[in-house]
Specification:
Layout: H1 2-6, H2 9-13, H3 17-25, H4 29-46, E1 50-60, H5 86-98, E2 103-108, H6 116-130, E3 133-137, H7 143-152, E4 156-158, H8 166-172, H9 183-192, E5 196-203, H10 210-223, E6 227-232, H11 240-243, H12 260-273, H13 283-299, E7 304-305, H14 312-315, H15 331-344, E8 348-349
Parallel strand pairs: 1-2, 1-7, 1-8, 2-3, 3-4, 4-5, 5-6
Helix pairs in contact: 3-10, 4-12, 5-6, 6-7, 10-12, 12-13
Bound molecules: S-adenosylmethionine (SAM).
Amino acid sequence: MMADLYRGLDRFSSLEREAILSWLRTTEPAELERLFIAADTVRRRTVGDEVHLRGLVEISNHCRRRCAYCGIRAPNRALRRYRMTQDEILAAAEEARAAGFGTLVLQSGEDPQLTGPYVAGLVSEIKRRTGLAVTLSLGERSRDDLARWREAGADRYLLRFETSDAALYRRIHPAADPEGPDRFALLGTLRALGYEVGSGVMIGIPGQSYQSLADDILAFRKLDLDMIGVGPYLPHPHTPLGYRPGHFLLPDSEQVPNDADMTYRVLSLTRLVCPFANIPSTTALATLANEEGRDLGLLRGANVVMPNLTPERYRSLYEIYPNKACLHETAEFLRTTLETRINFLGRKIGTGPGSKKIK
Ligand code: SAM
């Protein structure tokens, strides 16, 4: 049975850099179709037809960082800041459980007011009340904080490395502490602490080359990630990258476009190199290409959707990029509309926590 499962996967999972580059660059529709079909076939054989729903709660848009791409960066004075109360977060967790989601994802800017002890208390209370799997995505935190949260019951941590091109990364992501660990080191710490580890990149960052994007995909395999989030870079006008994009762009033949087509290619290649990973069809993709785009993501390698459960009064303030998709729905509405669409694709909503099937 296991041998059956693996037969044929090797051919894809060992893809080399040149093959990945050629898929990223091809202009042949038939070639692309072959890639999408291969990814969907691998997805069905490895993670199956279940689509796992992760309820996303954006608990604070305060951030001490100055990332050149992100709308909630500290220097953006045009943004009204919020931090959800513990009661509000617990209510969102109950809502997620009632709507049948298996996982709650707590995400925020890098907010020093979300202290180690506070988040640990929050996690254990969510676990006690709901039993949901808890994923944290709270930025670059100390080993002590990460260990404390794991002990409190956090199951997973998401920290995208954004790009594997070190020079580009330094330009768009100024270090908080130049002596501190980089994101790759933190991913190792998370793994050592026993988290399921998620990472990923943005696609089409001004200055991102095809070669570096191929290296990103190879890094997914090397890191043996449990969860991989890839979404288009979307310019925000109140950021250095969004304000003057032309300033950073490479020549056309080298610059990766930040469009839906490139996102589908990367989703499919990610599925081929990491056949068992949990891979969301991201909100950024839905922002660019609507619900049809999210569906296509699910048909081209993805097996996870992360509906937004942030209370409506805060949702538009978590503006990492403009016009974010799904701004105004409740958990119940999201669940029923998503279920209809997912069933229409011949898939079903996943039950339980939806952890990675094989490590
Ligand atoms: N502060 C945490 C961190 O940096 O990991 C979590 C929040 S951060 C806003 C979550 C992700 O949003 C980032 O990893 C980045 O990939 C994505 N993001 C930020 N700005 C974006 C933009 N302009 N377009 C697309 N994705 C963006």
